[in-house]
Amino acid sequence: MIDDNYRNYYQVFVYSFCDSNGDGIGDLAGVTSRLDYIQDMGFNGIWLSPIMPSDSYHKYSVKDYYAIDEQYGTMQDFEKLAAECEK
Question: Could you tell me if 29 and 19 are in contact, meaning their C-beta atoms sit under 8 angstroms apart?
């Protein structure tokens, strides 16, 4: 049995977390730029709210589970975020 009681996760609502390109909408590059901040607060993992294309602002009514909503960035931005999280 895995004991996960020591882990603390920070849920990121990407839409409003950190805007890296000045368009007023948070994005994956913004999340990547704030990983140190999240870690400094004592969290050792993140939980992203949905980032897939959707008609709703919260992205829970997903249209394509294999894509990244363009307002949040690209698949390369997501891959960079994942790579930075592994460090």
Answer: no
